[in-house]
C-alpha cells in the first residue's frame, strides 16, 4: 500500500492508502482499473484498521484497486479545528472530493482528457464510515455531475442507520432492541463526550473491549485459551495506538453530530446492490438495528439487499479477515460482472 495525500476545498490535508502508486501510469497492454474498493474506517480509527484486508483484496485474481482513507481528524489526516468540520456531512463532502481526486489519478487518452475515466466504486463503510456513505448519497446521489454511475454497490459494516433511540417514534419505532447499546440518548452521549475528553486512555481501552467480539462476549473456548491474554494485549495495543492519534475534543464533537443522524429514509433511496455485514457479538449494535438497512432498501424497491452475520464483533473485518475478504470479493464481482 502507498500513502498519498490531497488537500480539500477548505484547505484540509487528507491522507489515504492506495494499492496502486499514484498517479496511475498507462502501461502497454494494461488497462486502467475498472473497480475501486473503498475501505472506510470507523470512529477514532484509521486506514491502519485494514491491515488484514487491503493487501488480500488488491492481490486477488481480479486485481481490484483498493483505497483506504484516513478520515478528517483521524490517522494522518488533518482536521482544522478552528474551522469546525466535526460533522458527518463534512466527512461526506470529503469523500466526494476524494472520489474526484482518485478519478484524476487514472490514465486518460489524450482525446478524452476532459472527461473523467470510467471507474466504479464500492464503498465499504464500517461504523461511522457507513453513516458517511448514507449522508453522501442523501446529499449527492449515486451519479456524478455528468450523470455517470459512480458506484457499483454498497457494503455497510456493523452500523445501524440510527444510533439514538427514537422516543417519539418519528420515522418508526426505534428502541433498545435496535439502537446503539451504549450511546443512545442525550445523557449517554454527554457521558461519552466527557470520557473521550477527560479519560482518553481508559476510553480507548473500553472501545476495544466493546468492539472485539472475543472481548465483549467471549466463548468458553476463548475464555480458556492460554494465549488469550497475549492476544488481547496485542490487539489492545494496536487499536488504542490508533485512537490515541486523534484529538479527543474534536472526536467528542463529531460524536454528538453522528449519534443524532437518522439515515433510515436515506437507505430507501439506494438503488445499487447492498450488503450489510453484522457482528453477532458486537458491543455496539444489536442485529435488529443493522437489519433495518436491508428492510429500508427493500422498502424503496431495491431487491438486491441482504445481511450477512459474522460470529465476531464490531471489527469483524479484523477478527474474521479471511471470511470478510472472501465475501467482499464475491459481492464486488457480482456487482461489476
Q: In which order are the strands of the major sheet placed?
A: 1-2-4-3-5-6-7-8
> Which regions contain 5 or more consecutive residues with pLDDT less than 50?
none
Biggest sheet statistics: 8 strands, mixed
The CATH topology is given as Rossmann fold
The figure for the number of domains is 1
- What's the overall average pLDDT, rounded? 92
Order of helices and strands: EEEHEHEHEHHHHHHHEHEHH
Query: How big a fraction of the residues is strand?
Result: 5-15%
The number of helical runs is 13
> How much helix, percentage-wise, in residues?
40-55%
Q: So what's the CATH class?
A: Alpha Beta
Q: Please, what is the CATH homologous superfamily?
A: Alpha/Beta hydrolase fold, catalytic domain
Radius of gyration: 19 Å
What is the CATH architecture assignment? 3-Layer(aba) Sandwich
| Net shape | globular
Helix-strand makeup class: alpha/beta
Number of strands: 8
Distance between the termini: 25 Å
Describe the secondary structure blueprint for this structure.
Elements: E1 2-7, E2 13-18, E3 35-40, H1 54-58, E4 65-69, H2 88-104, E5 120-126, H3 128-140, E6 154-157, H4 186-198, H5 200-211, H6 213-216, H7 220-224, H8 228-243, H9 248-260, H10 264-267, E7 274-279, H11 287-299, E8 305-310, H12 316-319, H13 321-336
Parallel strand pairs: 3-4, 3-5, 5-6, 6-7, 7-8
Antiparallel strand pairs: 1-2, 2-4
